[in-house]
Hints:
about 300 residues; alpha/beta; Multidrug-efflux Transporter Regulator, Chain: A, Domain 2; Methyltransferase, Methionine Synthase (B12-binding Domains), Chain A, domain 1; Rossmann fold; 3 domains; four-stranded parallel beta sheet; two-stranded antiparallel sheet; elongated
Amino acid sequence: xxADMIGVTAxxxxxxxxxxxxxxxxxxxxxxxxxxxxxxxxxxxxKALCEAGHAPSNASKLAFAELxxxxxxxxKTYPGLNQLKDRLVNAAIEFNxxxxxxxxxxxxxLESAWVVYQELIEPALCAIGxxxxxxxxxLANEHLLSHSVKSAMVQFLKVLRPPRPRKKVLLACVQDxxxxxxxxxxxxxxxxxxxxxxxxGANTPPVALKNAVEHTxxxxxxxxxxxxxxxxxxxxxxxxLPPSFDxxxxxxxxxEACGQxxxxxxxxxxxxxxxxxxxxxxxxSSDKLDLDRLLLV
Length: 297
């Protein structure tokens, strides 16, 4: 019997149920009470509070409050990154910045920052991006999530900053490239490899990159092109290429800006680049293993 499990009399159980509504068991067809696990948990809390000196009326209120608090904590318990993606996307749709921040903070306790980016952040951004493609009103949600994600990744990088870096890596987006979140992801990968990332950020023309190279003296330069430098307008309708666009000219300008420093350029745009001369093609790759080889050499 439940009374024996709890250590109280059956009369106590009936009195608590009648006077304080604790618990509220279901009834079987024969009118027997059917106690759930939650009912038993509530009764044990009630008994413990009474033994601690609380009046039954007050103990019942405290028991309900404690159980409700525990249920709220359970709702915040995330089983893994895959399940977190839906939570992150829904929070962005609802403009719930607190939930976004809490989800990202919790994710950072589960896996490395790079895994969090690959398995949570990138899929969530893609999901919001798909909604935006279907409905322009979701642009605000995409901006909100992007801002929160970037803030979280900045915090990741502060934690990952190596005390004695093996290399300095300069990271920048090419001219007219405004999507800099992939750059922060690459910076995280650099930090995991024991290197110090120096992020210049979005829309960096060759002349600005050259200035940064001269002042920071990096060991490696990483350039990102997601929507800029597309060779075929039809491959990406939102790409805004200037009339005089010439890919080789653009890449040679970055090659000159990098000087004698090793450099690599990649991103979604790179998939549209064909028939580049060998001296440029050797610097083009979106394969993370190619980046790793340069970081670890």
